[in-house]
Each structure stands twice: as C-alpha cells, then as structure tokens.
C-alpha cells in the first residue's frame, strides 16, 4: 500500500540544532568490510535503515555473526574465503551500492548464487559491474544485464586493469573488493567519485597506492590473505542533511546547526553549489576520523539566491543531492543550468526526469534533455494549488525533496510514498518535527 503524506503549510522560522543518522555509504561499506574479518568489529551510529539491514542480512547468509542493538552493531565475519551452499539467494532490496559492491566481494565464490532486488533495483544497469568482474574470471547469467542475476566466481581471480569512466564509486568499489581477493596487482583509473572505500582500505593497512590528478584517481591495489577488524563511529550523512540545509536556506529568518557530518571532499558538491548560489553555509569544528573528514554545518536562511551554471566537475560529488538543488534553483533569481547528468536517470528512479516533473507540477518553467536541465527560477515563487506526487518506484529522495518543496513554496501536497524514507533516512520526519516544534 502506498502511504501518502499531506502537507498544506509552510515552515515557520526556526533556530535549532540537530544530528542526522550515520552515513549510508559508510554504513554499507563498514558492514561489508567487517564481514571479511574473522575478528570482532563494532560500529556506533550505524545507519539503521532498510538498505543497511539488507547488507546485514546478506552477510549473515554468507556466514557472518551479527549482534545489532539500537546503540551498536557487532560483526564477526568469516574471513576472505567464502563457504555457502550452492544457489544461495541474496537480496539487495533497494540498494544499488549493496547490489554492486557485494558482487565484487563474492568474486571468489566457487558456488553459484542468485542476486535479486526490489522493483527499482531490478530496473538498474548491472553491465557496469558484470563487465569488469568477467575480466577477473567470474561467470554470469542474466537477462539484459539486470537483476535477478546468477554469478559464479572462482578460486583464483585474475587481477585486472580497469578504467572507470562514469564517475561511479559503486563500480570502482566493486572492483576494489574483487581486487582484494585477486593474486597480484589490480590497477584502476577512475573518474573522480566518492572515496570512502579507498580511505577504509588505507586505514585497514590494505596495500593500496593512490595517485590523484584533477579528473582521475589512479589506484593500485594488491590482493591480501587477511583483513583486520574495523571499529568505527559512523559520522552523519551529508545526503540526508542536505534536505534540512535547503529547508533552512528557503525558510524565513532561520538557522540550523547540524552536528558531526561526514564532509569528505568527494561528497560536498552540494555545499559548493549552494554557496555559489548565495547560500550561507559554514563548516565548523573540522576534524579527521579514520581518514574521513568530519565537521558541524551551520546554515542560515538566504534571501538573495542567484542562478547557477553548474560546473560539471561537481556532478559526482553532488550526485545524490541534485533534486534538492533543483528546488533551490526554482527559488533563485535567473536561469540555472545543470548538465552532463545522464547518471541521474540511473538512480532509484529516473531523477533528472522526476526533477523536471516536480518543477512542472509547481509551475516552474524548465527545459529537460536526456542529460541536462535548465530551470527558470523565481524568488517570489509561492503556490496555492494542489500537487500530487505519485512516486511508483518509492524513491526516498523524490519523497524528501517533495516534502521540503511543500514546506517552502506552499500549496496543498499529497506526497507518496511515506515508507520510502526507510531505505536511507527513517528519522527524516522525526527530525523535521523537532525543527518545526
Ligand atoms: C554510492 C555511490 C553513488 C550514489 C549512491 C551511493 C556509494 O552511486 O549515487 O547513492 O555508496 O558508492 P554511483 O557510484 O553509481 O554514482
């Protein structure tokens, strides 16, 4: 059953401090890394959402022991060598990150397994993972490179040379996980994308060398026999907090302090873009934790927002935030232009198309192509009409962007699908309530 949230109010001014839940990319990576160590790993502030629970269920099926409470998660994995029954069924749910990374992790499974996912994940492309993993020696059965798929790995995966051209951290990371299990040197040339896997590998003293240039990272990684355990306090998720950053920017005379957020340079495109549009966002109390940058974010309402011709080099570091950035463009002075965004249509739902659709419902003129959007902003945008967001693929970010739009531009909104937030940010509405109280 689709659940609908009705909103017909705009947010009143506020001055609040919030925490958001643990970063999703780091949480999934931690679960997968911990499953490779025979020693106990403990995580605090792990995101407890459907995507992360899917990851936990997968590694349990692969033999890891997991103890999960609301305070912490402990995992005792079963090392790098896998032992499971033939035709094991693994379910990645809604999570592209899990579905893709786990294939790399299972490169040395001599037994066949079947990977499935929900309706949204089953529409997404897996050729981007199947092709490099075939070079390692894995075999696949699938229809049109989509889920469900069957994979059989091998005892001695061959290290490969791989060129990642899309700026996809999921592709890069899947190959890195496979490279861990190959004998010899795996070399990757990767278009810039989020760097959490490299940072975790380095912290775990896995032999990895990284050379960074302006557009590409060159990674050399040696296969290993053993992975150390990893205790981790997971910092807050910049993607989750970006909804509240925008709520504050577009609200009247408001201020929000968001504590302890992961501000890895490869994730903060949203902050650079919004600042260029005139938003007041400060990062304070910067520190480094296990190689990851962390800070507190202070954001204030901004009344003079201006359009942006968004440089393409921000695309990867803001990839999950474009929907919410489009909303800021709709309330800015001038015509904003976002380009080179074909990857955005390959997410949980086709988000570039969704961005355009929602703007159309709001009466905001926009011109959509297959990889770009021009948005004609209006600082005085204020709606009185009824808007229904259908969201058949239950995309969490479509839902959360629509909620923030409803609270900042007015109108009577019926927003599907309330349950979708459970994939990445189950506390979204609870935190919103705290801000509004
Ligand atoms: C993620 C990488 C991104 C992002 C996704 C999470 C990750 O996908 O959109 O939400 O954790 O590696 P791509 O790497 O395919 O761009």
List keywords for this structure.
23 strands; 12 helices; 4-stranded mixed β-sheet; binds shikimate-3-phosphate; UDP-n-acetylglucosamine1-carboxyvinyl-transferase, Chain; alpha/beta
Could you give a short description of this structure?
The protein is built from twelve helices and 23 strands. With 437 residues, the chain is an alpha/beta fold. The chain has a four-stranded mixed beta sheet. A four-stranded mixed beta sheet has the order 4-5-3-14, covered by helices on one side. Strands 6-7-9-8 form a four-stranded mixed beta sheet.
Report the CATH C-level class of the largest domain. Answer: Alpha Beta
How would you describe the oligomerization state of the chains in this entry?
Answer: single chain
Count the strands? 23
Strand order of the largest sheet: 2-15-17-16
Q: Could you tell me which ligands this complex binds, including any ions or cofactors?
A: shikimate-3-phosphate
Distance between the termini: 29 Å
What overall geometry do the principal axes of the alpha carbons give?
globular
Predict the CATH topology of the largest domain. Answer: UDP-n-acetylglucosamine1-carboxyvinyl-transferase, Chain
Count of the separate structural domains = 2
What's the Cα radius of gyration?
21 Å
Biggest sheet, open or closed, and with what strands and sense? 4 strands, mixed
Q: State the share of residues found in helices, binned by percent.
A: 25-40%
In percent terms, what proportion of residues is strand?
25-35%
Mean pLDDT: 97
Helix count, per DSSP? 12
Which structural class fits the helix and strand makeup? alpha/beta
**CATH architecture descriptor text of the largest domain:** Alpha-beta prism
* Regions with little confidence, pLDDT below 50 for 5+ residues: none
Looking at CATH, the homologous superfamily of the largest domain is: Enolpyruvate transferase domain
